[in-house]
Write a structure and sequence with these properties.
374 residues; mainly alpha; Rhopdopsin 7-helix transmembrane proteins; two-stranded antiparallel sheet; 10 helices; membrane
Length: 374
């Protein structure tokens, strides 16, 4: 179907089948080339795709479940940025356990086999997950902007509550924006030469304007507009940090230095998250718009298949990279992560005492805090 998260339409499935068919049809004239092409496509479908998808699911589940577990079991880590990051992880888990397996199965079956209910639900789940990711990144950028540009704003005791409310609102908005996918998605039977092809499509096929409008709206709402807002936030963040570096007096307290470094480190972490999201999803958006504006043309080449696979793998990889980016950027989170993996039996007391940490690592909230270094 033309479900957004993997951007793999019924016509693309036909393309894949045509690639195999053409390789067989051309055997008489180009035997060696056709056999090589057919074997290459067969190898990609039967070996490469399952291996890559299993790796994405395994790594994504490991990283995101561990991140959420750290947040749930460590009360000191329930700061504003951590709440947003945990919401990101939950959205990624939703995509990993539902959409990625369904997408993988579609390479092994020529038709849509999951029925009408799945045809309507899978696109909603995919678009909800993407919405949660990009809107949460926007909220995180706004939070970092507030902490750096307006550092005198004091975190109130209700900050965590309001942050949870914002995270819930993001989920509600993401679901509401995805509901049209369930309304218009349908199972259709498409003719393909001498056979009928069953596919799941997200809009009526009677008008060529539908795919164009759909792809443009998806690109604007879930990519261009949020990233433009984030860019404005980070422009002001960079401007403030540069100005503060020039205006900083020669003698400054150690506490102020720590605050400044913490702000920079937090802003860097969020910026890395945003960059990874943009890198992972841009190829998919470009490919989807290309197909939408060339809807009647079917590209059955091996190169198009490979480009499609790379774009899809990148988009799904966005659901597993954040925990490991955080692992590389935050020493404190790295310690908690290692101890979650190595020490299954852990007992927490108030104040939090980690029986597995002989040296006593600092909670992640010291790195990902709302205010400047609290």
């Amino acid at each position: 179907s033309l479900q957004f998260a993997h951007i793999f339409s019924a016509r693309t499935l036909i393309c894949l089948q045509n690639t195999l068919k053409e390789s067989r049809d051309n055997v008489r004239h180009h035997y060696d080339t056709a056999m090589l092409l057919g074997e290459t496509v067969h190898f990609i479908i039967r070996c490469v795709i399952p291996s890559v998808y299993i790796l994405i699911i395994t790594v994504g589940l490991l990283g995101n479940i561990t991140l959420v577990k750290i947040f749930i079991t460590t009360s000191a880590m329930r700061s504003v940025p951590n709440i947003f990051i945990s919401s990101l992880a939950v959205g990624d888990l939703l995509l990993l356990v539902t959409c990625v397996p369904v997408d993988a199965f579609r390479y092994f079956y020529e038709e849509w086999i999951f029925g009408t209910v799945a045809c309507k639900m899978i696109p909603v789940i995919q678009l909800t997950s993407v919405g949660v990711s990009v809107f949460t990144l926007t909220a995180l950028s706004a939070d970092r902007h507030k902490a750096i540009v307006n550092p005198m704003d004091i975190q109130t005791s209700s900050a965590v509550f309001w942050t949870c409310l914002k995270a819930i609102t993001i989920w509600v908005v993401s679901v509401l924006l995805a509901i049209p996918e369930a309304v218009f998605s349908q199972v259709v039977h498409m003719p393909d030469k001498n056979m009928t092809f069953t596919a799941c499509v997200p809009y009526p096929l009677s008008n060529e304007m539908h795919p164009k409008i759909h792809s443009i709206m998806i690109f604007l709402v879930y990519f261009l507009i949020p990233l433009s807002i984030i860019s404005v936030y980070y422009y002001h963040i960079a401007k403030t940090l540069i100005k503060s570096a020039h205006d900083m007096p020669g003698e400054i307290s150690e506490h102020s230095k720590r605050q400044t470094e913490t702000r920079k480190r937090l802003a860097k972490i969020v910026l890395v998250f945003v960059g990874l999201f943009a890198l992972c999803w841009l190829p998919n958006h470009v490919l989807y718009m290309y197909r939408s504006f060339n809807y009647r043309q079917i590209d059955s080449s091996l190169s198009h298949l490979i480009i499609t696979l790379v774009a899809r793998v990148l988009s799904f990889s966005s659901s597993c990279v954040n925990p490991f980016a955080l692992y590389l950027l935050s020493e404190s989170f790295r310690r908690h992560f290692n101890n979650q993996l190595l020490c299954r039996q852990r007992k927490y007391q108030e104040p939090i005492v980690n029986s597995c940490l002989a040296a006593g690592s600092a909670p992640l909230s010291h790195i990902l805090s709302y205010s400047s270094g609290s």
